Amino acid sequence: MTNEQYRTVRGACPHDCPDTCAMIVTVENGRAIKVGGAVDHPTTDGFLCTKVNRYLERTYSPERILHPMKRVGRKGEGRFARITWDEALETIATRFAEIAADDPQAIQPYSYAGTMGLVQGESMDRRFFHRLGAALLDRTICASAGAAGYKATIGASIGTDPERFGEARLIIIWGSNPITSNVHLWPRILEAQRQGARIIAIDPYRSLTAEKCDLHLAILPGTDGALALAMMNVIIGENLVDQDYIDQYTLGYDQLRERVRDYDPVRVASITGLSAEAIVDLAREYATTRPAVIRLNYGMQRHAGGGMAVRTVSCLPALTGAWRHAAGGILLSTSGAFGMNTAALQRTDLIPNKPRTINMSAIGDALLGEMRTVSFNSESSPHPLKDQMTPLDPPIRAIYVYNSNPVAVAPDSRKVVKGFAREDLFTVVHEIFQTDTADYADILLPATTQLEQFDVHRAYGHLYVVLNQPSIDPLGEALPNSEVFRRLARQMGFTEDCFNDTDEDLIRQALCSPHPHMQGIDYEQLVERGWMRLNLPERFAPFAEGGFLTPSGKCEFHSETLARQGIDPLPSYIPPRESVDSAPELASRYPLAVISPPAHNFLNSTFANLPTFLKAEKEPHLEIHPVDAEVRGISNGDRVRVFNDRGELSVRARVTAKARPGVVVALSIWWKKLTGDGANANDVTSQALTDLGAAATFYDALVEVEKI
Ligand SMILES: Nc1nc2c(c(=O)[nH]1)N[C@H]1C(S)=C(S)[C@@H](COP(=O)(O)OP(=O)(O)OC[C@H]3O[C@@H](n4cnc5c(=O)[nH]c(N)nc54)[C@H](O)[C@@H]3O)O[C@H]1N2
Ligand SMILES: Nc1nc2c(c(=O)[nH]1)N[C@H]1C(S)=C(S)[C@@H](COP(=O)(O)OP(=O)(O)OC[C@H]3O[C@@H](n4cnc5c(=O)[nH]c(N)nc54)[C@H](O)[C@@H]3O)O[C@H]1N2
Ligand SMILES: [Mo]
């Protein structure tokens, strides 16, 4: 809609969330005055979350960085002086050229999903670093364990269409907190519940979601794989399987049947902290209710065996034939259904040599001169996973951070801070705000918000491509990522044509794809409508008749691919690295498991600096069960110290049965400089990596808590 004064523009929420909402921005005389959810977009359904509803507070915040700056204080102090874009680009290009003359691998890009857009997240930036020959980054901080585990069983990140959840008769919400982290799924779950479905949460913490479910099973962290194996033990033992589905569409059933014999519910009860009866009931209810769907998500992935846990849980729907129904099956992520032409955007063909790859979840070690990798050896004891440290030669000499805030979000934060504090490290940070990471920049660049930039989005919680059209001009001298890398490429003298592509060119390239799901999705229609469903049937039942995306085309209970990598080819249980069983000595000193899932009003560390959201979250706290509090003499409201060998933080205790005994909960992610003691939950998390996907193990950490 346009007239003289008002205009509405169709956009997309950029944030790292499954929902990727279609937004409508109202603009008055060049200023955005309202953001809302598109009414016509099926999953957005006319509403935005509590955070993005107030997106204007972010865009028009007086705290925004609006021009380039250079450091004038000590590293980390956060004192900067204004410079011009020309000076900023020249400084960066000169330093990069110097380092590249010795070895470009010493230049490290560091980015994640500050925006999920393809243009601003993985196009010109990738081209630039590829052409430069910089080190690559393994982007493992969120989803790689689950993606690898799911891939081993199912073949790709494709699952039940979230739009069908309302028709399910049983929904298991497993390691997921949709009311906070996937709020547009929640109305569908409520719809199912109204129609008589049962909703079960499996979560160590009585989250906002768990407390609204019909049943909450407060499992011990990192033990989901064992629970799934015990469920299979019951389902197979009591012959509740769909033998026809198994015969036609799965691989390795006989071996699986043998394997699950080791996991009888009584033994698994002691592993998981659940009762044997609860496990048996869950298995029976799951196998006998149609359609049954599992919303499987990140909670279970952030542990040593996170990949294997996801692989194991993903076997369940093939065993019972739940996939036969469009509202049955399992949903981890829908991202694998999108077939955008990311190769055209990223241009890995520009890479001149074979540079090293740094794992982003171990950036602390990397900045301090060591590369961490993980190896898997089922024979070794007490734990099958081992992290190897290799000296980094050359060391990282420059780091360019965008779309991420590693000082606050990366594990084992003391090491991350120590790394960023290195005097000899040249650090560029491109940011909207002066984050904890920005404080360590040598050159700090101003970034645009979503209202000021052009982009195209896929999603991991629905099946629509969403276009983001800019609704306002950039504030101050802020520039989008794509434009900064375009200018840097010019400054470095890169002459390839691809560095001249406009954002529109990039979007067109992303859409130009031979993938069958992308057929019919074109730029002009997206501009007109804002969003389009992938070329999939309205009732999408991806594996109703097999067609898995594994090498065998079947649901692989037995995976030859894993076997070839020296990994157990069958589902198995890998305990947390930090637990009584795997590390008894450690557990005697640090008996409590700490988890730090998202706070409702933050989005990772995004929004965690703005008044409305800080007011809603009040202050950093630790939820602790009354029994654990009492033995430590801790009362509700006391200040407590949470610590282990890696670090510590001080927070306010909330004594509550929402945390199960043995587990403490520190909702996250706070900016370290806004907490009072300069620390957040990542001061106690570890850089150890997961089995599959080499991901971070944020929820696999033991601590002790004491009253201050
Ligand atoms: N409001 C808000 N929304 C968000 C985010 C945010 O920060 N804030 N972050 C976004 C991002 S990047 C992501 S990846 C997703 C994450 O969203 P989710 O997939 O929901 O993942 P988490 O919130 O990390 O964990 C979900 C639940 O798993 C539980 N959990 C922890 N350990 C275990 C375990 O071992 N087993 C089981 N069964 N449960 C466990 C936690 O207590 C938590 O309640 O949310 C996205 N959405
Ligand atoms: N303890 C603990 N730690 C965790 C987690 C946890 O549950 N517990 N969750 C983990 C997970 S799941 C994830 S995904 C990671 C998330 O970690 P990050 O991806 O680092 O996410 P954010 O903290 O939101 O930081 C994103 C930054 O990008 C900036 N940004 C946004 N848009 C743009 C843009 O267009 N251009 C530029 N240049 N910058 C932009 C934002 O201002 C913000 O500061 O954190 C992980 N860390
Ligand atoms: Mo994430």
Structural class of the helix and strand makeup?
A: alpha/beta
What is the helix content? Answer: 25-40%
CATH fold assignment of the largest domain: Dimethylsulfoxide Reductase, domain 2
Strand content: 15-25%
Low-pLDDT sequence parts: none
The biggest sheet, with number of strands, parallel, antiparallel or mixed sense and barrel status, is:
6 strands, mixed
Distance between the terminal alpha carbons, to the nearest Å? 58 Å
Write down how many β-strands occur, each being a DSSP E stretch of 2 or more residues: 29
What is the typical, i.e. mean, pLDDT? 97
What is the overall shape? globular
**Hetero ligands:** ligand MGD, molybdenum atom
Rg value: 25 Å
Strand order of the largest sheet: 5-4-19-18-17-6
Number of domains: 4
Q: In the CATH classification, which architecture of the largest domain applies?
A: 3-Layer(aba) Sandwich
Helix count equals 25
CATH H-level homologous superfamily name of the largest domain:
Dimethylsulfoxide Reductase, domain 2
CATH class of the largest domain: Alpha Beta
Polypeptide structure, described:
By secondary structure, the chain is of the alpha/beta class. The protein is 28% helix and 19% strand. The protein folds into four domains: 6-59, N-terminal domain of TfIIb; 69-134 and 340-448 and 469-502, Rossmann fold (3-Layer(aba) Sandwich); 145-335 and 541-564, 3-Layer(aba) Sandwich (Dimethylsulfoxide Reductase, domain 2), CATH 3.40.228.10; 584-707, Barwin-like endoglucanases (Beta Barrel), CATH 2.40.40. The termini are far apart.
